[in-house]
Amino acid sequence: MAIHRNITSKGGYHLKHKLKGLKKRKKQGLTRNDEDNNIQRTKKNWEIPRKLLHASIGFLVLYIYPSAEPIQTRNILLIVFVIVSIADLLRFNSVSFNNLYIKVLGFLMRESEKYGKINGVVFYLAGCIGVLSIFPKDIAAISILILSWCDTAASIVGRKYGHYTYRYSNGKTLAGTLGAITVGSITALVFWGGGLQYHKIDVENWIPDKSVLSFPTLCLITGIISGVSELIDLGGLDDNLVMPLASGSLLWIILVGLGLGGSTK
Length: 265
Prior knowledge:
single chain, 265 residues, mainly alpha, 9 helices, nucleotidyltransferase activity, transmembrane, transferase
């Protein structure tokens, strides 16, 4: 009897507090679904600064492209890469440092990157350094633009409209791919249609007078390459590393390897 009375009293205690919590939420006009929606909305809002930073790199590339040499840019990024990598190592080995890091820069990180996962910036920098080290200047630059703008477009469009379209086995969607293709085509339009001709850059691997590819065809090919590069999954490697290297490789094969760009260099 004593045991039964004790269990009943404990059960009554928890039930009382649950009812109290429900009354409090009801008084505030909140339901459990409302609270869940608020949490989801907060998470989405936190993604905005990271996406803005991601996309802004593309505008920086367009700004410095005419005057900056690939080797100089790569060396600057290497220094930043080392600093960010060291900071990540410190995060993994010091809880207090990680908490400070998150407090200052957490708004630019995914939730999954805050504890026990390498910061996406490390892969982003590695991808940029890779294309600047391997490819000609114009191909390296547009590969970084594809990473900055097409990856962001695929993420936004995929999240908003992905549930209406086919979903691939890796979790990505046809909507995201179409978003990347569209923005990739526009990126080519901006870069090759105005950037190179306006600044009269010597190093270019698509020469209108010599190339067998018309400008609209080049834009479409660049868009398709953007979509394919965003979709590629290499053993779970970060998109920030895979996307610029994949897009740069495919563009190089078409423009330089197959000689379709008209360049004699």
